[in-house]
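Why Serine acetyltransferase? Reviewers of the renewal asked for a concrete example.
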Amino acid sequence: MGFWQEAFKAVKENDPAARYNFEILLTSPGLKALAAHKVSHFLWRHHFKLLGRMHSQFWRFLTQIEIHPGAVIENGVFIDHGSGLVIGETAIVETGAKLYHGVTLGGTGKDTGKRHPSVRRGALISAHAQLLGPIEIGENARVGASAVVTKDVPTAVTVVGVPAKIVRVHGPATPERDRAKLERERHVSFYDHMGGI
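Here is what the prediction returned.
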């Protein structure tokens, strides 16, 4: 499927208020931002970086969603509401990911090269969650509202809080997927990660 078919399908599957394609096209800021990003990203990849940035800033003004033209976003991503959402330059967002308003896929200011999160297939990032640094959010993971995530999140778990902690493991429990064990493996305090501030 192409971008538009996957985009309409994602909106209809995730937004109970969505009724038909023309209405979605006219009223969904997430869909408009993702479509505009395709153009910005094309310009960025073809070395028209200033034009790509200008184009992305124009659509930021219209949709209140800021997506850096360097970010890699696959088809089939769903952005609901979207106001205040920010996606950084080196972020990766895979098919089936769901992002809500106020989400930040940002950097810490300490990393070079890959500086922003990777959100894998089917992950759900709730409103106002802050994902900082070159971390990975595993497939089908869920990040709770207003969580601050500075460490990788394993596949198929829910994390909440500041700093984010694993509170639920989805699917069958196994010794490898025990919640306490997973949390010990990824444990680092927000303050340790930020250099002890």
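The chain has a mean pLDDT of 89. This is the kind of structural detail the renewal will allow us to pursue systematically.
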